[in-house]
Amino acid sequence: MNAFSFFYRIQLAGAVRASFFVCALLLLTLDAPADNLPRMGEPVDQTLSPQEERRIGRQFMQQARVRLPLLEDEQAIEYLQGLGERLLAGMSGIAYPFTFFIVEDSNINAFAVPGGYIAVNTGLISNFQNESQLAAVMAHEIAHVTQRHHARAYSAQGKSGLTTAAAILAAILIGQQSPQAGQAALATGLAVSQQNSINYTRANEYEADRIGIDILARAGFSAEGMVESFNILTRHSGLNSSGLNIEYLRTHPLGDNRIAEAKARAASLRKGGEKDSLDFRLFKTRLAVITAQDQNLLRRQLEAKAYKNTTQARYGRALLQTRNQAYADAMTTLSPLIDTHADNFLLRMLNAELQYLTGDKAASIKAFDELIALYPTRYSPVKTLATLLVSSNEAHRAYDYLVRYERRNTRSNPDVYRQLADVHTRLNDPTASHEYLATFYAQQGSNREAVRQLRLALKTAEPGSQAQLRIQARLRELNPDKAGKEQRRR
Predict the structure, then answer these.
(1) pLDDT the model gives residue 337
(2) Residue 209 catalytic?
(3) pLDDT digits (tens, 9 = 90+) for 324-349
(4) Could you give the angle at the alpha carbon of 144 between the alpha carbons of 143 and 146, nearest 5°?
(5) Global pTM value
(6) Which of 27, 109, 398, 399 keeps 20 to 30 A from 217, CA to CA?
(7) Nearest of 174, 88, 86, 80 to residue 124 by alpha carbon
(8) Which of 141, 228, 247, 429 is catalytic?
(9) Tally of domains in the chain
């Protein structure tokens, strides 16, 4: 998504909050210290360097974690992240790691934020029929980021670029309950050269299509996935005369020429490539169960005659039974799938969890140990097992699993620190609990809350202990200005 296509609505309360977030993000962006690196890159670096893009993205994510309905299911997030990393694997010159996340919203939308942050709505996923279609949209968004369309748009506006960036990012956070305020915030970011911006947007879209199709094919997917995704979006737009539920088409204008060019590009590439996978079908079913508002309707859909005996329908019924604590029934539903798909991660995860919940804890822990050994960078097996162990008053054992995961991964999931904090609360160790929470908030970029947690930890630390010295050192690290003032007073 380009700079002028950033419009995403969530729940906030009115124009006062809208104005606050616009101003807050303007200040965050404009007051951010300039990097001290020499300006040796592209001309757009003079307006927005890769370091500044990354900083803007982190600032957006801080607000998004609070204001957007982000899906927190670890297994679903890992699938999407894995799909994104597969698309990125064949590319060179990636300036920073990408983060893919899911927004729990029925609107058909996806968007990219500067710095490699890419969101996909559950509404978009539910309307796609195979994996190559989802991969196509993700490849398109990746292309917007790697081609630095955000920076190019800001550069085209000269000195107003960063102001526009902040205003548009703020507009993403304006609520569904106040669409007028959202439009006003967006208008603030679009005050410069509107017609030129539209033309520039179209050029970006064509480029993102072309490069996205190449990314798709290079990752081993069918290039037709891009064309199919366009057809699905167009069809849904036709079914919805108001167009209000097709956010993606409002932000990514899709004309006949774009579709024709995508078809020609796809046809010019090698035929073949993957269109679908069991992982995608299970992922899509998992999202349907997690986000279901009407369980009876979902149950009827999963038991529809033509669909009932598919692997994804059985998995969905087992998930629904697990959600309703019918663990023995869920195990009965799932067991045939384990026999035929013994290597599937999502099926094995549910099987290991159900073994624990039905009383076979030894078999469950063995199954989780195998998953952790096979997928050492994935947090979901560790998180699920630790949660189960804590529920059985085995917090010490949960701690061992969490710490081993954290120590063997240089980029461990920040949630491990939040879970370690909970474990230490149960172990009656408030000092360690506050320390781990401080680490969690620091990794999220919330230094103020991290400092607050460290101060709480300091109050409970034993005087003269290693813990006290460690906490004091971390406070100085997070509060260097204050530490300097205290040192001068002494």
Answers:
(1) 97
(2) yes
(3) 999 999 999 999 999 999 999 999 99
(4) 60
(5) 0.84
(6) 109
(7) 80
(8) 141
(9) 3
